[in-house]
């Protein structure tokens, strides 16, 4: 996968995380939103760690 595609996918995950955080703020007791936000955090963490190890 090219670095440009990886960066745009990382950007999309970052934007998704921001959206989920806004939803969590708006509905702090909604467990489904919290689970989805947690999944995005995990995916973003894995992707950013991989990019850092490759020096992207």
| Class computed from helices, strands and strand pairing | mainly alpha
Number of domains: 1
> How far apart are the termini?
12 Å
What is the overall silhouette?
elongated
Care to count the β-strands? 0
Chain oligomer state: single chain
Q: Write down the Rg.
A: 13 Å
Biggest sheet record = none
Summarize the structure.
The protein has two helices and no strands. The protein has helices at about 5-25, 30-55. The chain is elongated, with a radius of gyration of 13 Å.
Could you characterize what this model shows?
It is a single chain. The protein has about 55 residues and is mostly helical. The protein has one domain (about 5-55). The protein has two helices and no strands. The chain has helices at about 5-25, 30-55. The longest helix is centred in the N-terminal third of the chain and has 24 residues, at about 5-25. The model has no long low-confidence stretch (mean pLDDT about 90).
Write the layout of secondary structure elements.
Blueprint: H1 3-26, H2 31-54
Key structural traits:
elongated; mainly alpha; 2 helices; 56 residues
């Amino acid at each position: 996968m090219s670095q440009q595609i990886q960066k745009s996918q990382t950007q999309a995950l970052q934007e998704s995380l921001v959206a989920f955080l806004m939803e969590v703020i708006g509905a702090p007791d909604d467990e489904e939103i919290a689970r989805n936000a947690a999944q995005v955090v995990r995916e973003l963490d894995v992707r950013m760690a991989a990019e850092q190890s490759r020096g992207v």
